[in-house]
Amino acid sequence: MAKEKKALITDTLNDNFILTKREKKLYMAFIYVSIISLLIGGTMGLLQTIMRSGNFTLPFGIGYYQILTVHGVILALVMTTFFIVGFQFSLMGKSVGISDKQLKWGWIAFWVMTIGTLTTTIMILLGNSSVLYTFYTPLKAHPLFYIGLALVIIGSWIAAFVNFRQLYVWKKTHPNEKSPLFAFMVVINMAMWVIASLGVAISVVVLIIPWSLGLTATINVLVTRTLFWYFGHPLVYFWLLPAYMAWYAVIPKIIGGRIFSDSLARMAFILLIFFSIPVGFHHQLTEPGIDPTWKFVQVVLTFMVVVPSLMTAFALFATFEVTGRKKGFTGLFGWLRHLPWKDVRFFAPFVGMLAFIPGGAGGIINASHQMNAVVHNTIWVTGHFHLTVATTVMLTFFGVGFWLIPHLTGRTLTKSLNRLGIIQTLLWTLGMFFMSGSMHIQGLVGGPRRSDFSTYGGTEQAQDWVYYQIFQAVGGSILFIATLLIVYIYVKLAFFAPVGEEAFPVAEEELDAEPTPKFLENWYLWIGITIALILFAYTIPFIDIINNSPPGSPPFPHLTGGK
Ligand code: HAS
After folding, report:
1. Do 553 and 302 touch, CB atoms closer than 8 A?
2. What is the 8-class DSSP label of residue 222?
3. Is residue 347 in contact with ligand 1, taking CB distance under 6 Å?
């Protein structure tokens, strides 16, 4: 543990660390990259919606798929990963501390991820890697595009192992003590991330990079797609879990309450690691070449992964109600009035929670096999993920930024910045209402996703879709204004707000809470069950895919087809 650290006793139940200047620098470095990414990715989003309205073409031959690739890669893969790694490091630093050596490895993680990001971005900007964030084969990018992405993943693995080490060292010095909730949650999320990203790493390093370098002439499309979605679904939980960390363990403090149940929160995270990985086939339900029995198995597992989110909804309602009643608010919904509506640190994540109600319902529709046939590959799916990741997760991350950034830079959230934050949240919500709402409806009437308007704009059906696309452009423009506003607020919070001490809210358990059962920290058991579930859901169908791939002829060669 860092020698210069002093434990600050904030509560009878919690020993929290004061973050040192040196570690704050590291955590902020990750946040800076994510803010820059938001600005670049948001601008690309605006251009896309305007292009899709049918009234605009880009200069210099810049193509629709090029900006769609920048938008997807920079927002979905880069901005999120940098924010999450930085935020999680701060949670670990706060709850279990960080040593000098771990800090050094944290910087190595940062630089590896940054070099990877720059490499990939340059390749997309040069126009030779417009393969979208899913980089489905047989679309082929420049080898450096994949090498850059591999570096981002390797960097995040380094961060993950630093986090594992941080908890391990803490455990050694606190034998028989329950690990802090933040640290427990971060380790679950990073364990899930490492297990899941192994799939995409194997696909990229073993199959795609040799093929893009011309070392192999063909590639097995279904294998690469399957490995991508083995990673792709847990990827969405990798985004969601840090938002849950804030909902379970930060929001109760902000509203003046306490954690509803430490055990429930841990159980929800354990269920999320179990069921988030063996479900990738629900992205491939319409794909030939996968046995329908195994699609059915993975659909059942997908419905299991809904359970921890329902538990989270229950815990949040309970936190809000219990806190309100303790403060003396009565009646069936009277407790709602106690919530700090004017505090953006609460308001932004709360709107994110609200968005997750339709967002989650949309996910359940997607996962329902027959209904998936209606929405798959339509712009409904784009509407779904703009409600989930771009509203629920993003608004929660924005809410975190309002206290985390000033805490790390030694400044304070002023009343006027708080007010601007509320306006920003409302603008974001309005923009998303227009954009995601019209995407959902256009999807139901058959509007395709990921489609360049110039290729289908002349068709009769496209004339009916134009109105939805105009709504999307209006929504996109409002969202762009909201993006500029959040970047402005963050720059103010990082460099210009008054110097001071902004609190790092860490929620505490009820003083008379039941002790958390020890078995909830049985890592061997949880990781063991996770691996068993993955092997159950993937082994037979994967062998099947390889054995039944048509040999030789592209684009479906046998895995061993080679040159
Ligand atoms: Fe999804 C496609 C199924 C959740 C993101 N999803 C996507 C894609 C993305 C994405 C990016 O089964 C597109 C990928 C691509 O490019 O092709 N999704 C689900 C299911 C869930 C789900 C079952 N998705 C998410 C989350 C995401 C995300 C979270 C990002 C963060 N999704 C699918 C399927 C597809 C799909 C198919 C493939 C579609 C296709 O055909 O291509 C579930 O996890 C959802 C469970 C959620 C709930 C909601 C709980 C509500 C809570 C809020 C409580 C509110 C409170 C407020 C307390 C059950 C916790 C208080 C309110 C007061 C009034 C006081």
Report:
1. no
2. H
3. no
Which ligand 1 atom sits closest to the C-alpha of 316?
58
Q: Is the CB of 248 under 6 A from ligand 1?
A: no
Per-residue confidence band for 218, with pLDDT thresholds at 50, 70 and 90? confident
Please work out, in degrees rounded to the nearest 5, the angle formed at the alpha carbon of residue 550 by the alpha carbons of 544 and 556: 100
Tens of pLDDT, residue by residue over 169-182, are: 999 999 989 999 99
| 237 assigned to active site | yes
Ligand 1, from 279, 284, 309, 375: best to mutate by most atoms within 8 Å of Cβ? 309
- What DSSP line would sit under 60-84, residue for residue? GG--HHHHHHHHIIIIIIIIHHHHH
Nearest atom in ligand 1 to 243's CA: 31
> CB within 8 A of 261, min separation 6: which ones?
315, 318, 513
**Residue 524 annotated as catalytic:** no
- What does the alpha-carbon distance between residue 102 and residue 23 come to, in Å, rounded to a whole number? 10
108 in ligand 1 pocket by Cβ < 6 Å? no
pLDDT digits (tens, 9 = 90+) for 325-346: 998 888 888 888 889 999 999 9
Q: Write down the catalytic residue from 233, 266, 283, 440.
A: 233
pLDDT for position 551:
56
- The first and second tokens of residue 531, run together, are 């691996």
CA-proximal residue: ligand 1, atom 40 (nearest): 376
- If you average pLDDT over residues 380-409, what whole number do you get? 98
* Ligand 1 contacts CB of residue 233 (under 6 A): no
pTM of the model: 0.94
Q: How far apart are CA 8 and CA 6, in angstroms?
A: 6
The residue to mutate among 285, 356, 378, 450, having the most atoms of ligand 1 within 8 angstroms of its beta carbon, is 356
Burial (CB count <10 Å: 0-12, 13-18, 19+), residue 190: buried
pLDDT at residue number 15: 58
Round to whole Å and give the CA distance between 247 and 422. 18
Q: For 411, phi and psi rounded to 5 degrees?
A: -125, -175
Distance CA 56, CA 76 (A): 25
Residue 357 gets which letter from DSSP?
H
The radius of gyration of the chain's CA atoms, rounded to the nearest angstrom, is: 23
26 lines ligand 1 (CB under 6 A): no
Residue 458 to residue 306: CA distance in whole angstroms: 41
